[in-house]
Amino acid sequence: MTNTPADQAEKVSGVEVGERRISIPGMTEEGENLAAQTNQAAEHTHGGLGETKKLTSGIGSRANRHVGFDAAGFPEPNGREEEWRFTPLKKLAGVLTDTPGEAEAVDYQVTASDAVVVSSLSQGAAPRNSVLQPADRAAVLATKNVAEALHVKVPADVEVAEPIRVDVTGRGAGRRANSHIVLEAGTHATAVFVLEHRGSADFNGNVEVVVGDGAHVKVISLQRWDDDAVHVGQHDAEVGRDATYKHVAISLGGSVIRLNTNFRYAAEGAEAEMYGLYFADSGQHIEHRTFVDHNAPRNTSNVLYKGALQGESARTVWVGDVLIRKAAEGTDSYEKNQNLVLTDGARADSVPNLEIETGLIDGAGHASSTGRFDENHLFYLMARGIPEKEARQLVVRGFLNEIIQKIGVASIEDSLQDDLENELEIAGF
Known about the structure:
With 429 residues, the protein is mainly β. 13% of the residues lie in helices and 43% in strands. 40% of the residues are buried. It holds the Pfam family SUFBD_core.
């Protein structure tokens, strides 16, 4: 990092602060220089995860997390693993068994203009599996047990004005469905993909997104399942040079929802964002995990997830990982999670993680907050003649509306406002 000249420096708590950057003790161009006892570990293997790779440092690093296409490398979890410790595994039994599932457990309907190419991809057919790397047992089983993946492609230089919709409808509670969808946007293409999930099933779905150089892509994933549905999934994207990518996850329905949403970069100059909104009622478990892999220089990322909870057994989980690798100089990254607890007994777990392997970055940070209503906000509204019930509704709507505005599709935004009204009615607001 650039040090401030001595004649311009002042010290705050022993750290030099100048007009340009802060010189942080222990942080160099090679990243954070941790003490030897915290940065090193005895040589070992991750036998319990099916790994044989030997690791000598950074044991907890996301860079060392096991990924692969061999189902044997992902044994059935027992709940003690870091990846599964928040998850109600008994409720996921139907999606963690190695089975092909039922051919007609879900129905797919694609709505797109004539410029969009809709086809299928067999195992080994590019670009299938060129982006998504299974990171848990559910993802590897979905990859293995889907013979033909749905492929939706926007050719290079094509701008699709209307959203491309993929509607997934479950045909019955407990019916197992494995799914693999490949969304592809060619060089300088522009498109909005909408994935909407309704009905009920035990749904295990992978989505991989190929964003070409200079392309502008938005993926909106709506989880509007019935109350008895189970949905686990992994969404991976690779963002090309000078491209923009936005992923928005909205989780409202279902008994258990667990989504891993990840992206990395193919080159420099890209902007990528992840946004999420969730509203959990009593008996629901909604879990979102995000991973931003800054594997190339001079890219930016932003992650913002917001959730509300109501009901004694409502449960939400957000785990956010950002890894800025040594090669990713000039990175600018930020992640934040905020939760609003509306009733007693609801629980929100929020775990932001940030790893930096180089000191030559433009910025990086993370934040997390979980709390009840701000009484000052309520007092302000009620002091202006707004009844308490309406004031509480306004606070919740204002809190979550920041995410809804990121969607950019008026029809979806309007319908989500209606969904929030229903959720607030359940809470008695």
